[in-house]
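Collaboration report, partner site 2.

Our partner group contributed sequences for two proteins of shared interest, and the home lab folded both. The records are reproduced in the order in which they were received, starting with the first partner submission.
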Amino acid sequence: MKPIRLMTGFFTVGVWTLLSRVLGFLREVLLLSLIGPGPVMDAFVAAFRLPNMFRRFFAEGAFNAAFVPMFAKRLEAQDGAQTFARDAFNGLGLVVLILTALGMIFMPGLVWLTAEGFAEDARFDMTVGYGRIVFPYILCMSLAALFSGILNATGRFAVAAAAPVLLNICVIAAMTVGALTGGAVINWLVWAIPVAGVAQLALTWSAAARAGFALRPARPRWTPAMKDMVVIALPAALASGVMQINLVVGQLVASQYESAVSWLFAADRLYQLPLGVVGIAVGVVLLPELARRLQAKDEAGATQALSRAAEISLALTIPSAVALMVIPFALVTVLFERGASDVDDTAAIALAVTIYGLGLPAFVLQKILQPIFFAREDTRRPFYYALVAMVVNAGLAIGLAPYVGWISPAIAATVAGWVMFACLAIGARRYGDAARFDARFHKRIWRILIASAAMGLVLFWTNAALQPMLGEPWWRGLALVLLMIAGAVSFFGVGQLIGAFRLSEFKGAVRRG
């Protein structure tokens, strides 16, 4: 077996994802500055969430959970991978094309179901209008996700990881042109999204063609392999649907409060940076690696891949979570407080960031544990676990709203995240030693926690010392840079000193990437 180089793949995906998230920050800075929290931004966020929800349901979630392991095993065994990919492409294309048409027709119903609180004001009609423009994005992104799965299974991570960068480039360019020409920035923004979808599809399609998988539209074929894939994908689709219900419940609660949808969206963008760079990157690389090793009966290699993925992920995630909880106000002030966004918005977003920070390790651990099930084509158990998390999320989001108001969806998401992780961890025990972390992981995780705690103390003291600079608009950026330097030096310094990791491991992976 020609193995996927796990650490190299992880850093390749991570670097491209980091670039995407940095550009995403610039995108949100422009959004908050040029439009700002309020009715228009609330409407855009609710509209853009619709194709993203269905994209995770049909492509990045359910479909890839079934497609990638089956494709990787056929590729490893040289058993009809090309035919399988072609049939999957045509089947997915037909299903999503029908979904897109239905979504365009019944957009008012979708908006009412996902943001019922908008029904009494102008946000409803705005969301319907924006939704009909951005919803076709799901067709392009679903097919792009299939091509990305092909590329990842063949060990070509760069193009698939780079594709999301195009969305941010298109959106940033559109908002900039709109602002400079004096036009309505929101109109430039919504029309940029379907354009970006076409660009992402073109990029991944051409890369897959160069990798030997030049797929063309054709009449879908119902084959035994497609039947097997649907049987595996259906529970994963239901699980993804449950997770999307969690998002809908949160948005329904938030839509009852003015600007709350915008605040939670901005906070979500901030904690999604480490989640995307670490959790999503390692999940993308780990799934095909585990599938191929299991196909080759290499359980020791599967254990090592799982343990190293968890080790490097938590070495980056835990300190990120600490930073989100210790200095949220400084982060939000520097990144988002300008233009149409004021100090009240900053305080609200910072509160949500703190709560999401508490759940960040759980969200990343889910990305590590889910491939244990998906690589074995077990999608039923994650669905059952997702149902448990859904009940917890809905109960807390709705039940806490009368007492804590708009922040209840953030609290609910964090608690549900830890519940989902606990279910996955307990359920994975049935797969034996191949699904357990090795001795090196258990030795290092406690040291990572100690190094993160030390970093938290340094950030707390440094943040207090830099408050005069953070209060001056011209010096805020420098203050945040100094905070980041202090945090990084303290974490990596203490971590290297007590043996939480070796810096050479990071450097070697970066050089190979």
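Second partner submission, folded after the first:
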Amino acid sequence: MIQDAVQRVKAANDIVDVIGGYLTLRQTGKVHKTLCPFHDDRRPSFDVDPGRQRYRCWSCGEYGDVISFVQRIERLEFPEAMDLLARRAGITWRDGDDSMQSAQKAKMLELSDWAQKQFQDSLWERQAGKAARDYLEDRGLEEETLTKFGVGWSPPGGDWILRKAQRDGLDLNVLEVLGILGRNDDRLFDRFRERVMFPIRNPRGQTVGFGGRVLPGTPTAERAPKYYNSIDSALFTKSEQLFGLDLAREEGKKRGFLAVMEGYTDVLMAHQQGISAVVATMGTALNQRHLNQLRRHTSQVVLVFDADAGGDSGVERSLGLFAQHEMELRVARLPEGLDPCDWLLNEGPAPLNKALDEAKDALTVAMDKWFPPGVVENVGSSQAGLDRVLGLLGDGGPSGSTASIKRELLVGRLARRLGLREETLWQRKQELAKAPRALDRREPRQVASSSEASIDESAMPMVEREFLAALISHPEWVAEAASLVEPACFKHPVAKGLYEAILGLLRSGQSPNAEALRPTLSHQIQAMVLRLGDMGQSNPEPRMWFNGLIEGMTRLGSRVKSANVRKELGRLAHAGDHEAALEVLRRLQESARGALNP
């Protein structure tokens, strides 16, 4: 369960050790102090408490635990922060294991390597691999390139590699965990069938997973996805893996960048043509986890996009990454209708090399799109483009950070491009940030995660804060609360959304505790939940306190309902709809009589 995984990750990562890896801490009594990394701190106002495993900035109000800190400092989502801390501690959390023993990991790597060799040998079997070899040859790929990358072939059927594993006496459970075998009830089968197999290697060259491309014109192509990847495991995570990184990183150091493409064959052809500083994502958009991988090997990334609508959206996504990450991101555009593999095959390496060397940063590409010559005359288009670009720049991180400085430079460039004062752009950015983005009406467990907009906890009625604190610290009371307090009783939208999320966990059969909530919450609401949970645990007479809160929420609910009725009556009267207003009054009177005569 998620709460067990959270506790396991937190227990394996002492908050002082983790934060001490980012900041210089100085012990003062029972706490460690430093300058807050989340605002322009002039004097140490950031405390790390090893006893409570919490941090708090007494100036800007940042508060949380070791997972919250990693989310905030690395700009990660909750699962990504869990992954980072789990890897740091040498454990895993997704499959419930207590630890990733080195022997287990070695066995997984051994069997991944075994599977890669079986697939590769199959490709070069005279008859069995002919169809796959013909397809790859038609793409212009040579035997030397295919061998260099360990490309293979998984034949049709359903038990080809299963039979080989049984013959060799291998651990079928490990092959299933790796996603090489699948299971249907009690029957094991080959997950990859009739596919060209591209081994995915870690930076050390060890096979950790596979990407399988279905062979065109085969029966499998008619009923199965074009690409099929390994399932996530302790070795492989699709959203952070980069194909070809092991063969690209050294050349990337020489050229000063790594180029990111979209397809396996694009990477193979680039290497075949002598352009080796090239990798590909696993069918996902470039994200922060990819950048965290790449920054170990280079300080600059060039994204290769097609000249189409998909490429435009990719540029905008990259601008958001570029503005909030210390790495430098540039964009190379391809001729419309061509992918890198075909372009290289038809034109040779020179045009792509030129495009990589002349790649523009993401902001320049976005400005060329949104603010071409004559845009000033089109005020509406200019305003829409400005708002779009400003929204992509993010909050820029703590004052004085690399991201904050980068954001200031970007805003300055925008101002010069449009002939506007920087102060005007900053003001507009603040207006966009303050624009109301209320919690929507999606599924309850999703509600509390929808916005990172500023949350004014002081505007939340104290009874709502304490009621939530009681439930978060004592989840065994949620079922009782659900029968007595409706979400409509809440006045503050964030408090209401959080209560709905708690009830959503209860309805889904999960324990409605703080750790189970966390994957669905924004960073700010996570911090609020931790504060409320700590508040609830510190109450000396929790049950008496909770009983009083039930009464308080009931009274508040009556006031909220009355206020809503008055608002509705006013609206109807203003609209002249007197019959509807009388109907509202009639229902109100019936409700009151029902309360007096239960």
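Feedback sent to the partner group on the second submission included the following. The first helix runs from residue 2 to 11. Residues 96-100, 436-454, 591-598 have pLDDT under 50 and may be disordered.
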